[in-house]
């Protein structure tokens, strides 16, 4: 998977919504966000977004038949789901997730149209990254519990601070999607929800988290978490702090010829490296010759292309 392409971005306000989505419904929402980014069309309140069972099965590593089944089950329930969020004045507003949903039975696909509240709450990164909670879709695809997904989304906002404020138990239960009568005993809540979710996050994601009880007298009134990122493998992500001349930022390893072709056809790439060829040469006159020449140069010595990391041209 292209990790940048599978970035899920949601506003913190929407992330903190009081919601009760099932795991299949959460996964459909995640796929919708990713696919809206991937197609560069974004989300709208009048244009349906299509997700098919094959795509669901591929991302969440299940069979197409199971993906088909899960999506069909989620069609009706997702349309009826509501959530509550707070406006700028701290007053609660209720909204649905979807204003329209259609399942194409013979095609194994679902088409969704989100409500205005959701469309305004989900966006592609636009430079205001501090306003968004972002995480890679891959970090949650292996989760078996919806509680793990919800807790991950809450805690990933605090990865820079490394610790959270107290999550007051009543609000926290709502954020985890629990009904009034679900796991009312603290021992059940910890075993079935909190411990299950923290264990799965620690085993299957990029975060290492733990919690401590916050008490008032002898009574537990909430939980505070510490949140740490696990050390990244050297090949995972190049640090933004590294010098721009570092050669491994410009490697083409892992890129196929189609991707290299897209890079060389990128208008920004052409502007950055047009000076490398003479205007009278074949590469300076014919786009196909330019693409052929640049692909060969990238494969031979990518370190000469230093104006920006090579993979960035795939995102323009």
Automatic annotation (TrEMBL):
Do you know which Pfam families this protein is assigned to? Rep3_C, Rep3_N
Instruction: Identify the residues that the record assigns to the Initiator Rep protein WH1 domain, covering every copy.
Output: 8-155
The record's listing under InterPro entries reads: Initiator_Rep_WH1 (IPR000525), WH-like_DNA-bd_sf (IPR036388), WH_DNA-bd_sf (IPR036390)
Under the heading NCBIfam families, the entry gives: repM_Acin
Q: What family is it from?
A: Belongs to the initiator RepB protein family.
- Name recorded for this polypeptide: Replication initiation protein RepM
Specify the taxonomic lineage.
Bacteria, Pseudomonadati, Pseudomonadota, Gammaproteobacteria, Moraxellales
């Amino acid at each position: 998977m292209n990790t940048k392409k599978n970035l899920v971005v949601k506003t913190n306000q929407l992330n903190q919504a009081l919601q009760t989505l099932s795991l299949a419904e959460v996964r459909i929402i995640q796929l919708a966000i990713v696919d809206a980014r991937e197609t560069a069309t974004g989300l709208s309140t009048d244009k349906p977004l299509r997700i098919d069972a094959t795509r669901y099965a591929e991302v969440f590593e299940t069979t197409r038949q199971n993906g088909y089944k899960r999506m069909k089950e989620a069609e009706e329930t997702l349309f009826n789901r509501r959530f509550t969020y707070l406006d700028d004045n701290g007053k609660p507003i209720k909204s649905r997730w979807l204003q329209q949903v259609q399942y194409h039975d013979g095609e194994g696909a679902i088409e969704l149209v989100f409500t205005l509240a959701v469309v305004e709450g989900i966006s592609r990164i636009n430079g205001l990254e501090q306003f968004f909670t972002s995480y890679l879709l891959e970090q949650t695809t292996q989760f078996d519990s919806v509680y793990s997904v919800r807790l991950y989304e809450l805690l990933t906002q605090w990865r820079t601070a490394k610790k959270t404020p107290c999550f007051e138990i009543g609000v926290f239960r709502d954020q985890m999607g629990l009904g009034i009568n679900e796991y009312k005993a603290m021992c059940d809540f910890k075993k079935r929800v909190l411990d299950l979710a923290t264990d799965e996050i620690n085993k299957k994601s990029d975060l290492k988290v733990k919690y401590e009880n916050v008490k008032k007298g002898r009574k537990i009134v909430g939980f505070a978490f510490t949140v740490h990122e696990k050390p990244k493998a050297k090949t995972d992500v190049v640090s933004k702090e590294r010098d721009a001349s570092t050669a491994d930022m410009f490697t083409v390893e892992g890129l196929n010829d189609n991707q290299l072709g897209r890079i060389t056809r990128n208008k920004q790439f052409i502007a950055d490296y047009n000076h490398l060829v003479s205007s009278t040469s074949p590469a300076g006159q014919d786009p196909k010759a330019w693409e052929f020449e640049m692909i060969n140069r990238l494969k031979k010595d990518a370190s000469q292309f230093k104006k920006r990391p090579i993979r960035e041209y795939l995102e323009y």
